[in-house]
Amino acid sequence: MHEFNIGLLAVAASALLLGLLSTPLKRIGLPDSVTLLLVGAALGPTGWALLDPAQWGNEMAILEQVARLALAIGLMGIALRLPKRYIFGHWRSLCVLLLVSMPVMWLCSSLLIGWVLGLPLGAALLIGAVVTPTDPVVASTLVTGPVAKENLPAYLRHIISSESGANDGLTFIFVMLAVFLLTLPADQSITFHMLRVLGGDILVSLLLGAMIGYSVGFAMRKAEEKNTIDQPSMLMVTTALALTTLAAVKLVGSNGILAVFIAGLAFDLQVNASEKQEEERVVEGMDRFFTSPIFLLLGLMIPWQAWLSLGWPALALVMGVLLLRRLPVVLLIGGRIREIPTRLDGGFTGWFGPIGVAALYYAALAHHKTDVVELWPVVSLLVVSSILVHGLTAMPFSHLYRRMRGSKTSS
After folding, report:
1. Cα radius of gyration rounded to whole Å, the chain
2. In this structure, what DSSP letter does residue 45 have?
3. What does the alpha-carbon distance between residue 332 and residue 139 come to, in Å, rounded to a whole number?
4. Distance (Å, whole) CA 328 – CA 351
5. Long-range CB contacts (< 8 A, 24+ apart) of 107-110?
6. Bridge partners, 337 (sequence order)
7. Tens of pLDDT, residues 134-148
8. pTM of this prediction?
9. Contacts of 369 (CB under 8 A, 6+ apart)
């Protein structure tokens, strides 16, 4: 109980501080994720030793559930921030990013991990799959707020948000393929199991998410017309929708993460502009509160000794993954699709593909299914590095992007 109250105090006090200082913190380019990560590290076993997740039970089980909640709220926020019917009008560009860049990101990360650390192919493919998704929670801090809106065009912010929302659920395919390669006996067909994943997890998630989101949106619109719902109740609907979809789809054995994003998009089809704006504000506030614990927990769970045991190759791996995992392929796509019309747009979009909460969720999920010892040390190292590097470069790179874009326009 003593540790619970310390943890509660840390989360609540951090949320209060970040809320009261939100504008100046965004102006100086210090994201919530960086601040909370440092707070967690300071409170953890290697800091002031006030909190130790190892004493709470199964650390990875706790991490998985906290990450699920953070992702659900984050994905709902992205779905509401996108313009109505955005996915339908820009599906070609989104498909290029998902079908081209995601496999390249997976293979590039896997090759780097296997080569630099000398891991077996199966382990490298698994860790590479876990760090493939661009994180919606961390990405939201890069494309929202006054700095982003002043420096980045809407089309760029929308494509970064929509890709990070869609690829979280689809990463499940790569993670499960790697898990099957590591765990299935030789006499069992990987193809059969992958078809079950595509049908039972991905397709069912798409259908259930669309049905739940559209039905809730329709019900809310009818309730408003008949005056059976008041304004405060309307403002809690999307948060409840995210958690309901997450739990319901998981209970039927499918991918709740993907379903939440689809539910948010379907819900958005039914609500009017004023409702959408109000719901977006509420979800953004809930997003910041629900994501606070995951970054604190990550700070507490940093495996310092395991990082040190990786040696100097770990530094080379971080540099290689951050520079090569995403930037080259999206840079090549730049200028070839409507939503990334120039190489400059491709370079910015390619750089800001953070590794974050989605990777933590899949790392915990894969931990229960495999015995890859290097999984958590490598994933946590890449996540922490990405949070720090991408978070601290967001503001200066946004200003640099605006200056370069302005100089090209004027010339």
Report:
1. 21
2. T
3. 21
4. 9
5. 108/324, 108/325, 108/329, 109/321, 109/325
6. 340
7. 988 777 777 777 777
8. 0.93
9. 179, 183
